[in-house]
Structure formats: C-alpha cells, structure tokens
TrEMBL record:
It comes from Oryza rufipogon (Brownbeard rice). Belongs to the glycosyltransferase 2 family. Plant cellulose synthase-like F subfamily. UDP-alpha-D-glucose binds at residues 36-37. Mn(2+) binds at residues 213, 237. This is Uncharacterized protein. It is found in: Golgi apparatus membrane. Coiled coil: none annotated. It comes from the Eukaryota. Keywords: Cell wall biogenesis/degradation, Glycosyltransferase, Golgi apparatus, Membrane, Transferase, Transmembrane, Transmembrane helix. One of its GO terms (molecular function) is cellulose synthase (UDP-forming) activity. GO terms for biological process: cell wall organization; cellulose biosynthetic process; plant-type cell wall organization or biogenesis. It is a multi-pass membrane protein. One of its GO terms (cellular component) is Golgi membrane. The lineage of its organism: Eukaryota, Viridiplantae, Streptophyta, Embryophyta, Tracheophyta. The keyword Ion transport does not apply.
Amino acid sequence: MDVFVTTADPDGIAALDDDALLPAMDVFVTTADPDKEPPLATANTVLSIYPRRGLPRRQGAEVTRNAVVEAARFPALWVSFCRKHGVEPRNPEAYFNAGEGGGGKAKVVARGSYRGMAWPELVRDRRRVRREYEEMRLRIDALQAADARRRRCGAADDHAGVVQVLIDSAGSAPQLGVADGSKLIDLASVDVRLPALVYVCREKRRGRAHHRKAGAMNALLRASAVLSNAPFILNLDCDHYVNNSQALRAGICFMIERRGGGAEDAGDVAFVQFPQRFDGVDPGDRYANHNRVFFDCTELGLDGLQGPIYVGTGCLFRRVALYGVDPPRWRSPGGGVAADPAKFGESAQFLASVRAEQSHSRDDGDAIAEASALVSCAYEDGTAWGRDVGWVYGTVTEDVATGFCMHRRGWRSAYYAAAPDAFRGTVPINLADRLHQVLRWAAGSLEIFFSRNNALLAGDRRRLHPLQRAAYLNTTVYPFTSLFLIAYCLFPAIPLIAGGGGWNAAPTPTYVAFLAALMVTLAAVAVLETRWSGIALGEWWRNEQFWMVSATSAYLAAVAQVALKVATGKEISFKLTSKHLASSATPVAGKDRQYAELYTVRWTALMAPTAAALAVNVASMAAAGGGGRWWWWDAPSAAAAAVAALPVAFNVWVVVHLYPFALGLMGRRSKAVRPILFLFAVVAYLAVRFLCLLLQFHTA
C-alpha cells in the first residue's frame, strides 16, 4: 500500500527566474503580543520572505512596529546578499547559526545566474552582513527592553488603526546593482529590487469584539486589496520562517489553470497547505510536537479526497476563495464575483478591487487612507465579514472553520510537502504551555461542532465529499473522547483500592472477541500510520502517550469550557503560548540551555485530572500488592489468575501512557516535585477508599 504523493517539478520551478511569469502574491505575517512573540522573531520571518514578494502585516504594539522599521533598513543588504550567493534559508538567525553548526561553512545553493560564488568572496560578504545583522539585533532588543518599561496595562486593546508603507514597490523590471567600492558587498549584476513592505495595525476599542486572529486576517485581506490586490495570499505566523525560497512558486503552480480543465482543474483549488515543521524540539519529542502522523498521514490522505484541512499557518490562498464565492465549476455560465455592498461593506475602492480580480500596486495617499478606513473596527458592522466572507468568527480555531466553509462550497485544497521543508517554526516544549496550546485547539473544535458550521449538518451534500464531511466531523468531536478515557483510567483502579481484588467474574467470550478485534485493529492502524507517515515506531508511541495526556487534561477542560459557553454564552479566552528563537541557542550552548523550557515545571489546573489519574493508578497498583500479596497468586487456576491480573494490567497500561506527564512534573532538578506526586498518590488513594467505604455502607 504505497503512498501517492502530488509534487511539483523542481527543475521547472527553478527555471522560472522571471517573476513576471507567475502571478503576484501578498504575504500576511501576524503577531499579537511582543512579550510572548519576540519582535526579533517577527523581523526574521519578514526577512526570510523578503527575497521573493511583498507583505502586509499587523500588530498593535508600538515595539513591534519599531522592530519592523529597524528590520526594513536591513533588507537592501540582506536580500542582495541572498540573491548574490543563493543562500538558504533566508532567515538570518537560522542561516548564521546553521553556518556555525556546520563547521563554519554557510549553506549555499548553486545558482549560475548570479556571480560571486567563489568561497573567499562568500566568506568576506557573510562576515560583513553578519556584523550588520548583529547591530540590528541589538537595536531591536533595546527597543523591546525600553518598551517593557513604559508599556501601560490595557493599551494593546485600545488604539487607532495604522497603515504605514515602509518600503515602496520597486516594480517588475530588474534593477541591477553596479560596482561600487563604497558598498559593504559588491552588487554588480545582482538584482537589488525590494518588494513592498507595509505595516498594518487594525483599530481596537474597548467594548468592541475584535475576533482575535480571524479579525486581524480579515482586516489585512481588505487593506491589501486596495494596496496590491494580489490574487494569491500566503498566511504565516510570526514564528514560522521561509526555509525553502522555491516553495512559494511551487505552491502557486498547484493553483494555476492546467490545460484541459475538467472537474479536477486547478482553478477549483482554494488553498495549498504546507506541512508544519519545527526547530528547537527536544530530541525525544516528549510532547509529540512534530505531529508527523497528522501532517504526513491524515493531511496527505485527505489530499486524495477534497483536500487537506487548513491548519493556521504555512497556507497559500486564492484571494477570490476568501470572498465567499463558489468555485468556477459551480458558478453559472459567465458568472463572476458579485461585489455586493451589503456583503463586503461600503468601500468603493474595495468593491472595485473585488470586481477587478487583478493585481496592482498603489501606495499613494488615497490608497493608504482607504486602507486605514478598511481596518477600522466599525467597518464590518452590518456586513457578512466573519460569516460568509473572509476568516470565520465564533471560534478560537478560525483556521479549521474557514477551510470547512471553502470545502462545503465545492472548493478543493492541495497538500504539498516540499523538500527541503517550505517553512519551519517553533513550538512550546514546556508541558504547561503545550497543554494550553492543545486546550485552545480542542475548545475551538468543539465550538465549531456547536456552530452553524457543524460538519454533520452544514454544506451542500453534492459539493462536500461524504468522507471529507466525516473527516471534519472527526476533527470537531475528538475532545469528547476525554469523557470515556478518564473513566477508562479510573474505573479499573477502584476495585483494587477498595480491596475487592479486581473483577470477580470472568470476561465473556463476546468481550474477549471484541477486545481481540480491537487490539488487532489498533495494531493495523499503528502499522499503516508508521508506514504512511514515514516515522519510527518510537515516535508513533510518543504520539499515543501524549494523546492520553491531552485527553485527560486539555480535552476535558475544553469540554467543560464549551459546555459553559453553550449554557451561558460566555466567550472562551485562551492563553497565547510563548514563542522563542529556536536557533538562538546554538549547539555550543549545550542541551541544558537549549532545552531549559522542557525541564521547567509550571503548575496549571489543566494538570490536575491527569495527575489524579496517574496517582489513582499508582495507588491501585500499590493496593493490589498490599500485605505483600498479589491477587492472582491465590487464584485456583491459570484462567482465574489471568482474570485477577486484568485490573493491574489496566493500571500498568495507564501509567505507561502517562509516563511523559510524570517526567514533566518532576522536571530535571526540582526535588520539591517528587513529594507532590507522592502526596497525590496518598490523597487519591484515601479519597477513593473513602468513597468505596461509603458505597459499601449504603448498600449494606
């Protein structure tokens, strides 16, 4: 059962050196909190995109804008250096640290169209560019330190909108540098054009809903329409940088019309989802951050149906698909995009851009003023934004809901795993941060299930493939497994703690057959997932372990939060996970510093149910051996011994699954945490024992 993978022709893509051969692209880089998402990481993401196309972006913090302004002074040197020597990746932080880790040699991609590939010239240019980058980095760090001292509480939620053009568009004609000894590096015969860079900060006012990231993306969608109106849009989080500069071209190729047309024509592809790859993950991947089973098995499998699910970052969109229109094969003959003011708002320039469906470049005063009006918090009042147009509101996982709305209209999506990886990012390796991240995903999935975008009911049955509908339904109901799993973790332990010696009745043949079929099915799934995703069995097992940790903690909390929202209408709030520069800790720093977050213990209420389940099962194993006697030793037969040993086997199975959680609680050097685990075990044992005594008293 080999995997069928759709890919792009690398030789054909590399031959497209003229940007005019491909349509224009806008890149949206989003960030929210400069404390959790360092401005230096955002600046590096911007610079990694820069050798290709322009980008609008957003943020309400002044320090982020100042950091981007500082970064805007560096691209003239950085972009020319990248084009001259063909370096990869285009992220300065990752590039320079990769050079240190590789024995002092920078990563160079052979590109015959540029000069200066001689090793001495590269070493000299690299040294000069790095010196300029380090100076820029120090200035950005100083800006962040100064901003932390003067920031006022609540300022991020009340500010005016800002649209600022930092770098104007240079046009489509190549602009070659000239030999000039006064420059830091020789730019003769190097294309020195810089794409446009626009800073966009939407308006926020207290008392008005801003709809989190979905509202920011919709503001960017409108502002970019009057400034550039590029037909394709790349969505990147601030902690994800471009690792393969050719991947953007390959993504566009998936959406360009092919000859022949037909139902599977590229014109019906709404977005191309790239897999997420991460730096800075601990070698053992204790908390399953890589998640290769989902990206390389589930998403790849959906590519054979109607396409993968949109997962928030590293996604290339067709602009018109975000406007809530039908794909070409579902439109009436000659039907285009109807620019309805009741749907899109009253902006004449924006409505004209919707009708035009062609790119342009405007950075005059009128366009900037119109873009500023389009990012105001009142513009969406009385329109279809957030419901039928743009990113979907009403859930903290706006990505899944937005992708579902496209698929249910009949659009398709595509999955492309580039080599090298198209994008790389960072993830939280601390247990508390990771659980908060999973909580947000799980709560958002349940919000979608209880919304008008429920996959079971919404969508035209002719346009949404039945298996695609089932996949979305599975994506929105999986947190409910926590209710059954917490019972699975606790109930088999109760008889042992109560002193009942486990199960008294032998399992029926039907139960044994069911259990055997279940185990065979799980084994088959494991074999297929490891084969299709290309991971080792150990990595698959870590995914299973963290699934149980998540289900007994974050999933359970998500069910409670969404139940409270459904009952009271109270909106869900979530904690933004901290981002960091994964490459900032070089191999020289050692693993202690590089993975310090992994061993940092931060207690959160999310851990309580999992800690209780772990403690109960450890206590039940201790209770089973109370008095130095194990229950199956006194069994009259081997069959009876097997029956008596089943509860302890369940306990061992649960404890083995929760082992990474126990490691996270213990940290590396914190001796104060081990007594906490012992205390939990004692308290859980006494609580369950007391409950059982009460039940025996009432039934006596």
